Amino acid sequence: MQRIESTLRGGVILLLLSLVLAAPALADPSDLAPDVRAKLDSLPDDLTRIEYLSQEVAEKPNDASLQFALGNLQLDAGKLDQAVQSLLKVTELSPEFLGGWVNLGNAYDELGQLDSAMQKYETALALSPNDERTLCNLGGVYFKKRQIPQALAAFQTAIDQHPQSQLAHYN
Question: Could you give the angle at the alpha carbon of 95 between the alpha carbons of 99 and 112, nearest 5°?
Answer without folding.
Answer: 55
